[in-house]
Amino acid sequence: MSAESSSASPVPRSILVPFILVTSLFALWGFANDITNPMVAAFKNILLISNFESSLVQFAFYGGYCVMAIPAALFIQKFSYKKGLLMGLFLYALGCLLFIPSGMMMQFWAFLLSYFIMTCGLSFLETSANPYILALGPEETATRRLNFAQAFNPLGSMTGMFVATMMLADLNPATEAERTEILKNSPEAFTAIQKTDLAVITGPYAMLGMVVLVVLVIFAIYKLPAGRNESDHDIHFGGTMKRLFSNPRYIWGVVAQAFYVGAQIMVWTFIIQYAGNELGMEKATAQRYNIAAMVIFVTSRFICTVLLKYVSPGGLLGVLATGGLLLTLGTIFIQGMTGLYCLIGISACMSLMFPTIYGIALEGLRGDTKLGAAGLIFAIGGGCLMTPMQGAIMDMSAFNIGGMVLSSTRASFFLPALCFVVIAIYGLWVKGHKVRVAA
Q1: What is the DSSP letter of 37?
Q2: N or C: which end of the chain has fewer CB within 10 A?
Q3: What does the DSSP 8-state code read for residue 7?
Q4: In 329-423, which ranges are E strands?
Q5: Measured distance CA(76)–CA(240) in Å, rounded
Q6: Shortest CA distance to 253 belongs to which of 346, 377, 387?
Q7: 325 near 420, Cβ under 8 Å?
Q8: 167 pLDDT exceeds 60?
Q9: Three-state SS sequence of 154-209
């Protein structure tokens, strides 16, 4: 696809209000994503479980996206984008409010179920909001418009990170070794610490559930305009799937998206573990570096959105993925603070990837867009599979690679490095292939 050189505004004045309302949802699910990432480390300490077990938080969280994407798309096709948004907000609020009984039960599986229900709602929201933003205005500025809307997602993410930082600081400061000793000598005291810490985690999610309920009421009242191709409510599942599976640009876009989400979640989830295991930082201190990564991500997102007016999305995607690969290799092979800085710098390269892959893969799908969007949300499942894999690697002993000894923490980042290789290949391949328009 050639660079979008049109000077037309991606957000015409006629759609400004609905655009603002729907864009606010991007920040809302960004908050959920990034208040949750640090909870992997928190649950590990509170419950005295392994890296693999604690990373099941991400398995449950992103599993909801994976399971609900296709049902959400069929629901939206049968009804409307607006009803998809309402269903998403309802499930989102329900999952958040279920943290209250989960905290009372003090059972890890109950928290995992709450995360799963919450992200079933997020799956509805993303399956509705992303294609709706594309369909809301002129088709020639659709990718720019989605990148602009997605630029507000990290603002919610940063807010979630700040809240998570306060949560980590409020947890009992006892280390895993100290907690193990307390459990051995006084199980009652250990249970009391657990109860207090789980209450710290439960509170912000319960408040988030109340906020989401308010947003649900606003969307129920406001009349959203219909998007392009929204008048057809018949479910042409067989024909649509046949066209999608015969479209290599789309299929490989789903693959690239799965690897991108896997890379993003691994990088952001394990910044805290990297800083703690490699540099001996406290969790609350390490979380500040997570916030720095998000600031870089937000800044880069706005810069890259402007660059898309002048350069090919596929070409820019390929270049940034190559940069992400090089920084990930720096994270693996360079010790000390420089390795941590490389890990933080990866966020600058990831900033463009999700919305750009999304826009590239859906371009030209027309009436197949809703189910096509579901496949790209389904690809978020990459985060639910790869994160536990990285956690399992972290639980291993150090690796000896060609005479160089790598800690299991640093060696685990070979997984996101592989992801960036796949994304770079897709971006450079797309750059040389024309869009196939659906019939």
Answers
A1: T
A2: C
A3: -
A4: 399-401, 404-406
A5: 15
A6: 377
A7: yes
A8: yes
A9: HHHHHHHHHHHHHHHHHCCCCCHHHHHHHHHHCHHHHHHHHHHHHHHHHHHHHHHH
In angstroms, the Cα distances linking 210 to 98, 268, 436 are 12, 27, 44
Residue with tokens 């971006």: 427
- In the block, residue with structure tokens 């291993």: 396
**Average pLDDT in the 351-358 region?**
85
User: Residue 289 contacts by C-beta under 8 Å, 6 or more apart in sequence?
Assistant: 271, 275, 281, 340, 344
Closest alpha carbon to 22 in 80, 82, 75 = 82
CA gap 92, 29 in Å, rounded: 9
In total, the chain counts a number of residues equal to 439
269 to 142, 161, 294: CA distances (angstroms):
31, 11, 12
pLDDT at 323: 96
264-293 pLDDT, tens per residue?
Answer: 989 988 998 899 899 989 888 888 898 899
State whether residue 404 is helix, strand or coil: strand
How distant, in Å, are the alpha carbons of 177, 301, 304, 365, 368 from that of 309? 54, 13, 9, 22, 26
- Gap between the Cα atoms of 426 and 51, Å rounded: 31
Parallel/antiparallel/unpaired status of strands 404-406 and 399-401: antiparallel
Q: What is the pLDDT of residues 3-47, one digit of tens each?
A: 444 456 666 677 778 888 888 898 888 899 888 888 888 899 899
Q: Is the dihedral of CA 68, 74, 75, 81 positive or negative?
A: positive
- Which tokens sit at 55? 């990373």
Q: Give, in order, the Cα–Cα distances in Å from 432 to each of 294, 313, 314, 426.
A: 32, 11, 9, 10
| H or E stretch at 313 | helix 313-333
Q: What end-to-end distance do the CA atoms of the chain give, in Å?
A: 19
| Contact indicator for 123, 68 with CB cutoff of 8 Å | yes
CB 182 within 8 A of CB 190: yes
Q: What are phi and psi of 91, to 5 degrees?
A: -65, -35
Interacting residues of 245 by C-beta distance below 8 A, sequence separation 6+: 251
Which of the residue ranges 40-49, 356-365, 420-429 has the most confident prediction, judged by mean pLDDT?
420-429
For domain 13-226+239-431, give the fold. Answer: Growth Hormone; Chain: A; (1.20.1250)
Q: Which of 164, 134, 171 is nearest to 149 (CA)?
A: 134
Tokens for 427? Answer: 């971006």
Which of 18-50 are b and which e, b meaning 16 or more Cβ less than 10 Å from the residue's Cβ?
Answer: bbebbbbbbbbbbbbbbbbbbbbbbbbbbbbee
> How far is it, in rounded angstroms, from Cα 374 to Cα 233?
16
Does residue 106 come out as left (phi exceeding 0), alpha (psi in the -120 to 50 range) or beta? left
Q: Are 416 and 328 in contact (CB under 8 A)?
A: yes
